Fold:
Amino acid sequence: MNLVIFGPPGAGKGTQSKFISKKYNLHQLSTGDLLRNEIKNKTVLGSKISSLINSGELVSDSVVSDLIMSFISNEKYKNRLIFDGYPRNLSQAKNLDNLLNKNKQKIDIVLKLSVSLETIKKRILERQSQEKREDDKELIAVKRYKNYETSISPVIDYYKNSNLLRVINGEPSISEISAEISGIIEAI
Structure:
């Protein structure tokens, strides 16, 4: 199965993706991790990505698409992917469908973690004190949340119209969210 997990930065996508990947033997494809690896490896692309992320902007579709294509086309990950943080806009959603179709795959389910801005601020500040991520500053978090909410709306509608979307309350504890996700996955 291939699935997509949505939620604004700080919603717990990464945490839930790790849980899902472990429980269902899937591979988490986090665009955030791919982008941070480029930054960590000090590539030219990583430098450009760092500049965008630290100013609260989103990375271009073509850059992200190139980064994920190697996973979609790899037989090792066929029908075993969790797309964490991708797609972020309608163009990316359609591109992902095309890339998957070319590799005889599809999205089986789309999960959206619904979380308030106040909860996001609280989580970002907690994460910043633990992980020291450069993009975990309140003003950047608010800008990223607003950018995310604006850009994701057409994508949510796209998957809703495809009858793939399931909305999960992202406010309770990690274990409660994980239990709800498990129930949804096991129902399909």
Remarks:
- The chain has a mean pLDDT of 88.
- The chain has eight helices and five strands.
- The longest strand covers residues 109-114.
- The two ends are 10 Å apart (CA to CA).
